[in-house]
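ok trying this again, last paste got cut off
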Amino acid sequence: MIKPSNLLILPNFEATKALGKKLGQNLPKGSVLLLKGDLGAGKTTLVQGIGEGLGIHDPIVSPTFTLINEYQEGRLPLYHLDLYRLEPDAVSELYLEQYWEEGERLPGITAIEWPEKLSYLPLNYLEIQLSYIEGTGRQVILQPVGDVSLDLSHIG
């Protein structure tokens, strides 16, 4: 069930980036974010804000053609995955579990665009659904799944 506090309306690009910045400042080590939404919904903009909140100064761009961009500077490393161009069978061969499985997890924040392509999901993650609504901006739904230790009351 979606709580009203987990539903946000972001009127513009700057608000989307600001939400990402707040997340970047507050996400604990090992957090996994599954970013869902159509093309142009603001997934990469949100990740740019997360990078800013983590203190990353390198430009954050969509890894559509490289699949994974890793940013090591900042409070925590950021692993940005974009699975848009892959078929689900190809994704399962990449061993992406190292980004989220206990005991193998890399020590940072993992943001995955187009997680629908994953053959299986992590046990614990924050699902972020972004939708563009004409005349309003973006609607964002934040939904923790599993054991996610993030207080969402101050986000938004």
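PB: full thing came through this time. The chain is about 20% helix and 25% strand.
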